[in-house]
Design a protein that fits this description.
single chain; 308 residues; mainly alpha; ABC transporter involved in vitamin B12 uptake, BtuC; two-stranded antiparallel sheet; two-stranded antiparallel ribbon; 6 strands; globular
């Protein structure tokens, strides 16, 4: 029964993990860029929400939209500063600069720049609220539902349903809506999209801001269950989001649900067996395994294994 309870607890953790990984997956799918400032932007929105909640006594219905809006604005800043000159605006490969270890120098500079902005945004958060623990509107449930011998937290349950609905909704919008199809075209065939008359830079910018806005929504979902935000929140968002997205297949929107479920279940059992250190080790181990499998698959594709 304990094994089943831990598995259930892990599945309930998949909801927040899926929301965290959704924005990162969407950003990669549209720009083919990994934004290292992803968690820091959400942290800035969360700190601003905490400041509004504590200093100005804003109600929860006003704080949460403010967090999403500020996070989206932070994403716009990151996109303009770090990725604006690397977007494939006209579909050109932009390989004029010499490669660095097999990657385009522009991409390496953009990645390093997003790391620098990560540090900048985190420092801004700490300057805004220097305390280690900062209150955030708390919507956590105080009681559990009992399913026989199993306990089920209703807030986690509803969060999981919201995550499933949002992930499937975003996946459907990317496949069925005109804007979604245009974003996919700019990601897969930027030159063809440009020649078709699409405004590729604007679409890429819009997709990046939407992805960052989703990270703000994920921050609201996570922090309303915790009731507080700390300076480690940005790192937590980036690591959990990257793990869930990579395990599910980075760039696969629906795959985030599978990656989040696997991450949550493995972490729950690892924590029960080895404590908090074991949980963190399991996260890093799954992320490393996903990276190794992705690298092996890429080599297989290059060697023609898919055509065998």
């Amino acid at each position: 029964m304990e094994l089943l309870q831990r598995t259930l607890d892990g599945l309930l953790e998949a909801g927040p993990y899926a929301l965290v990984g959704l924005g990162l997956t969407l950003g990669f799918g549209i720009l083919r860029r990994v934004n290292l400032a992803y968690g820091a932007g959400a942290m800035l929105g969360a700190y601003a929400g905490s400041w509004l909640h504590v200093r100005l006594d804003w109600p929860v219905w006003a704080v949460l939209p403010a967090v999403v809006g500020i996070t989206a604005l932070a994403g716009l800043y990151v996109q303009w500063l770090c990725f604006g000159h690397t977007d494939r605006a006209t579909g050109s490969a932009q390989r004029a600069s010499p490669p660095v270890s097999g990657a385009d120098a522009r991409e390496v500079v953009a990645l390093a720049a997003s790391f620098a902005v990560w540090m900048q945004l985190e420092q801004l958060c700490v300057n805004l609220l220097p305390r280690h623990l900062n209150p955030f509107p708390d919507l956590a449930a105080t009681q559990e539902w009992q399913l026989g011998a199993l306990g089920l937290r209703p807030d986690r349950f509803w969060m999981g349903l919201i995550a499933i609905a949002l992930v499937l909704g975003v996946a459907h919008a990317l496949r069925a809506s005109r804007t979604g199809l245009a974003m996919r075209a700019t990601a897969d065939h930027p030159l063809a999209a440009h020649l078709s008359g699409m405004h590729v830079p604007q679409l890429q910018r819009l997709g990046f801001v939407i992805a960052c806005g989703l990270s703000g929504l994920a921050a609201c979902a996570v922090l309303t269950l915790e009731g507080q935000v700390t300076p480690m929140f940005g790192m937590w968002m980036l690591m959990k989001g990257l793990a869930a997205a990579m395990i599910g297949g980075l760039g696969s929107v629906r795959g985030v649900l599978l990656g989040a479920a696997l991450l949550g279940v493995v972490e729950a059992h690892a924590q029960a067996a080895f404590g908090a250190i074991g949980r963190d080790a399991a996260t890093w181990g799954l992320l490393l395994l996903a990276l190794l499998m992705r690298a092996r698959l890429s080599r297989w594709q290059l060697s023609g294994g898919l055509h065998a």
